[in-house]
Amino acid sequence: MITISLCMIVKNEEGTIERCLESVKGIVDEIIIVDTGSTDRTKEIVAQYTDHVVDFCWVDDFAAARNFAFSHAKMDYIFWLDADDVLMEEDRKKFLELKETLNPATDSVTMHYYLAFDEKGNVTTSLRRNRLVKKNNNFKWYGEVHEYLEVWGKILHSEIAVTHCSIHHDSDRNLRIYENRLKRGEQFSARDLFYFANELFDHQKIERAIIFYKQFLATKNGWIEDYISACGKLSDCFNTLGDHQSELQYILKSFEYDSPRADFCCRLGFRFLQQNQPRKALVWYKLATELEKPADNLGMINHACWTWLPHLQLCVCYSQLENYELAYKHNEIARQYLPDHPSILHNKRFLEPLLK
């Protein structure tokens, strides 16, 4: 059976760190906490779980801090979390099973990362990350902000999920780091351009976000998933500005990088519905229902577009075309995913008398 080191970087996490460490108790064989300047009870809480706490002088570089944490690991594999991440009970069981059965030739194990949920607790947004990596490979982190772990070799895509349960964070921190780097005249990598644009977008600096998203796309040496995401963000930017021609341009541009994704099909369908063209809209919503959700894609997944949403919208399309039988059929498919959704229940009440 393999052994596992948990490596974390923390600062002022008294509200979340206990929950996180409690969720991995009995799974990992050592816990290494790198503290970057806590002034609250973080270290006091951590001391209940490990005595391996190391201070690190913060230098606005997340990769440097994570590499420092990894350098202290002694076990066969390294597992990493943020303080506001947890393993739910079902995922604890899956992790323990993985620990007992993992082929030691495996270089990295990816896990789902659940980022957002609906009111019923269903996952709405997720991605995959390399979470458990072989120590002897000396994999390194790169990037001062939105750092990534570069891995290679034999990779196992597991069904274990890490759940993000954020309570608080400094929402301006990453933007400040990027702005300071820009002022120093640093050359941004393609990845820097993408994530800086994301920070600008999140802070509603739409015009500047557009500039940096376009610069990122022009590099032609980024990750495909980031290119596709940037197309979605640009279409959102132009929608906000009321420039619907440019919005359409970047929806379609996403098809240059890969076969159509369900979320972009839904974007096109919505545009045609807004233009009162349900026949054109249903073509794209129908395509979204026929696509297979990627199982091992590391990019962001909007689960609604791969499950219930296109069926709900097909109900709208067919209703406008007065094909109530097909409208009802797709509404029922949507209801299998979300039995209590108000719009789905409204459609059901509306359509049933018409069918009778």
Description:
The protein is an alpha/beta fold. It folds into three domains: 4-164, Spore Coat Polysaccharide Biosynthesis Protein SpsA, Chain A (Alpha-Beta Complex); 170-258, Serine Threonine Protein Phosphatase 5, Tetratricopeptide repeat (Alpha Horseshoe), CATH 1.25.40.10; 265-356, Tetratricopeptide repeat domain (Serine Threonine Protein Phosphatase 5, Tetratricopeptide repeat), CATH 1.25.40. It has helices at residues 17-24, 42-46, 62-70, 89-101, 173-183, 190-202, 206-219, 224-241, 244-253, 262-274, 278-290, 303-306, 309-320, 324-337, 342-355, and strands at residues 4-10, 30-35, 53-55, 77-80, 85-86, 108-117, 123-134, 140-142, 148-150, 155-164, 301-302. The strands form two sheets. Strands 1, 2, 3, 4, 5, 6, 7, 10 and 11 form a nine-stranded mixed sheet that branches. Strands 8-9 form a two-stranded antiparallel sheet. Helix 2 (42-46) links the parallel strand 2 (30-35) and strand 3. The longest helix is centred in the middle third of the chain and has 18 residues, at 224-241. The radius of gyration is 23 Å and the shape is globular. This is Glycosyltransferase involved in cell wall biosynthesis. Keywords: Transferase. One of its GO terms (molecular function) is transferase activity. Residues 5-146 form the Glycosyltransferase 2-like domain.
